[in-house]
């Protein structure tokens, strides 16, 4: 979470300040998925897989699907290059 500066109420308007402060805190708590995924690393070979049937997927299918998803998010889309 990033550092927040909420200031202080202006002209004694504590309710507006409190509501605005809570809104700032809420917005700061959201993490950007792309920024979070940038910390992940995919090592080794995998087969690009963008569809998955959970009831029949093997461990290898799931690993390929997750690797593809992570790479796509890191590239900001499946049609972009690294």
Strand-helix topology:
Elements: H1 14-29, H2 33-37, H3 59-74
Computed structural class: mainly alpha
Average pLDDT metric: 83
**Biggest sheet, open or closed, and with what strands and sense?**
none
* Ends distance: 27 Å
Beta-strand percentage range: under 5%
Whole-number total of structural domains? 2
Element string (H = helix, E = strand): HHH
The helix count comes to 3
Spatial extent as radius of gyration: 21 Å
Please estimate the helix content. Answer: 40-55%
The parts where pLDDT drops under 50 for at least 5 residues are none
**Assembly status:** single chain
- Count of individual beta strands: 0
**Looking at the structure, what is the overall shape?**
elongated
Provide keyphrases for this structure.
single chain; 82 residues; mainly alpha; 2 domains; 45% helix; elongated
Can you put this structure into words, describing what you see?
The chain has 3 helices and no strands. By secondary structure, it is mainly alpha-helical. The protein has 2 domains: 1-30; 34-82, no CATH class. The model has no long low-confidence stretch (mean pLDDT 83).
Concise summary:
With 82 residues, the chain is mainly alpha-helical. Helix content is 45%, strand content 0%.
């Amino acid at each position: 979470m990033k550092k927040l500066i909420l200031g202080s109420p202006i002209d004694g308007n504590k309710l507006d300040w409190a509501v605005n402060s809570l809104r700032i805190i809420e917005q700061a708590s959201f993490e950007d998925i792309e920024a979070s995924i940038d910390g992940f690393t995919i090592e080794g070979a995998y087969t690009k897989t963008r569809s998955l049937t959970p009831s029949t997927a093997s461990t290898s299918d799931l690993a390929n699907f997750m690797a593809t998803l992570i790479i796509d998010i890191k590239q900001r889309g499946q049609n972009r290059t690294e």
